[in-house]
Backbone:
């Protein structure tokens, strides 16, 4: 379902009697729900009986525009092609691929020989060389790659072998210091989880055109999950022909070469299923932050325990218990951080904490219970978090966090956090405790700043440079906060009438105060 925008032009002539074609197509914008192509130009003609295509376009992506150009010519049984590109946002990302392809018939089926010509590609400021090689496109649909080499100084990828649907046929891949993230995400388009690191080693891909099977011995330096370094990894996989399954093992060590995790399991290509046991020893869990950021942010800690990872590769499940040491998480809207040492329980579609002792940053204790559910892929997350504590730090905000209401609050009571991926609700029902001091600004600091009670005049002529503030991209995620506070004389309240003049009213007393605010609305005060 593509959409044309602007005035598109198609003009030219096709004359069979004279064996002539000259066709021009110009499309200002061609877009679908996922892609937008600007300034698309196609020109087809046949000078000297050579059919020639000249085309160019600008591909609009999230990171900017990329120019593409394709020039191709065909005569008799051969086609010559040149594909080039240049990233207009980052001019150091350019490249070109050239090839000559010769076609013929075998048993009434088409076969071809692709001769890749030497060219260069620039990736992340590094110049990569594509060396000359041949690729056979056989009439039985198999593909034979003859020593394809992609190199940049000491980094390289070498590919050689036969790609088919048979398990006996394999393509060998030899790698040295290759960016794993670039291969998985930019080339293979892996989604859902971010994996990175620098990989060195050899792998063989069997049955590449049907259900790929990997036999590999790879070392990954600074292996990453969700952009967080886990450690170095040594990965092995072997093919069990009688049982038609693949054995995979992985050993992970931290920067001090201390083992932090071991993974063992099998992959069955016929059913596309995995079954692994991951034995972790103080494994850094900060890579889990993206899955919990709707509730808490800056997740940290070290996990120890055995977790089973199983199921079809597209809907993997997790089961097991892991003890989290030095665990912590922050509630951004309240500017509070909490710490714990206890066990997290995983089932196929849930994550739970039961009666966990939680501490605030001043070591005041509380009881924590968490139940999170998801669709088995850590998506469509729903959660219910309950905290009950005495003299707990429940608020630790400053004027820059909220114009109208801020301060430091200690409380006896409960915190209830619930919601999903679109909205989080934070309900606090508490009695104020000593050392609580909260501030209410009349009209807010931003409005008070507009009042001109006092003008300061500088007699020096100082050139002022305009400061352009970039606004962060708006988020659709909403956080609703509802504070129900039973105020006692333990708490001190300060009413700021004039922030610029220093006019304040301070007092203590008894009463009920309710504070409501969210990501998109002004604060509301009652009581």
Residues:
């Amino acid at each position: 379902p593509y959409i044309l925008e602007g005035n598109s032009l198609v003009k030219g002539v096709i004359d069979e009697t004279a064996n002539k074609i000259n066709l021009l197509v110009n499309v200002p914008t061609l877009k679908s729900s996922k892609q937008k192509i600007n300034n698309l130009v196609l020109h087809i003609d046949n000078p000297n009986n050579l059919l020639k295509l000249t085309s160019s376009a600008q591909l609009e992506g999230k990171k900017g525009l990329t120019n593409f150009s394709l020039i191709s010519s065909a005569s008799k049984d051969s086609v010559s092609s040149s594909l080039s590109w240049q990233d207009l946002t980052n001019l150091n990302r350019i490249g070109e691929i050239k090839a000559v392809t010769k076609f013929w018939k075998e048993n009434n089926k088409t076969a071809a020989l692709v001769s890749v010509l030497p060219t260069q590609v620039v990736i992340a400021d590094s110049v990569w060389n594509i060396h000359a090689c041949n690729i056979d496109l056989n009439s039985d649909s198999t593909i034979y790659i003859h020593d394809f080499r992609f190199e940049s100084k000491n980094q390289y990828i070498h590919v050689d072998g036969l790609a088919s649907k048979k398990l006996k046929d394999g393509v060998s891949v030899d790698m040295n210091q290759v960016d794993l993230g670039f291969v998985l995400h930019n080339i293979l388009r892996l989604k859902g989880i971010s994996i990175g690191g620098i990989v060195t080693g050899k792998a063989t891909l069997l049955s590449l055109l049907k259900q790929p099977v990997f036999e590999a011995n790879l070392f990954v330096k600074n292996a990453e999950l969700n952009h967080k370094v886990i450690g170095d990894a040594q990965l092995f996989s072997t093919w069990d022909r009688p049982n038609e399954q693949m054995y995979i093992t992985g050993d992970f060590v931290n920067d001090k070469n201390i083992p932090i995790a071991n993974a063992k399991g099998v992959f069955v290509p016929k059913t596309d299923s995995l079954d692994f046991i991951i034995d972790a020893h103080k494994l850094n869990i900060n890579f889990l932050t993206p899955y919990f950021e709707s509730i808490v942010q800056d997740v940290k800690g070290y996990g120890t325990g055995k977790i089973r990872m199983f199921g079809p590769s597209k809907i993997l499940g997790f089961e097991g218990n892991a003890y989290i040491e030095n665990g912590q998480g922050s509630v951004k809207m309240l500017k509070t951080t909490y710490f714990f040492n206890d066990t997290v329980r995983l089932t196929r579609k849930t994550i739970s904490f039961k009666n966990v002792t939680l501490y605030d940053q001043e070591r005041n204790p509380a009881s924590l219970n968490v139940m999170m559910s998801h669709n088995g892929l850590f998506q469509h997350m729903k959660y219910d978090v309950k905290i009950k504590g005495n003299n707990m730090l429940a608020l630790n905000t400053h004027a820059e966090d909220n114009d109208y209401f801020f301060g430091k609050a200690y409380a006896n009571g409960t915190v209830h956090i619930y919601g999903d991926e679109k909205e989080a609700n934070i309900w606090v029902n508490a009695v104020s405790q000593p050392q609580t001091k909260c501030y209410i600004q009349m009209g807010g600091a931003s409005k008070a700043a507009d009042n001109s009670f006092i003008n300061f005049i500088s007699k020096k002529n100082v050139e002022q440079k305009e400061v352009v503030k970039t606004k962060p991209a708006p988020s659709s995620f909403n956080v609703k906060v509802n504070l129900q506070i039973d105020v006692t004389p333990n708490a001190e309240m300060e009413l700021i009438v004039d922030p610029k003049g220093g006019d304040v009213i301070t007092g203590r007393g008894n009463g009920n105060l309710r504070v409501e605010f969210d990501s998109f609305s002004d604060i509301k005060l009652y009581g």
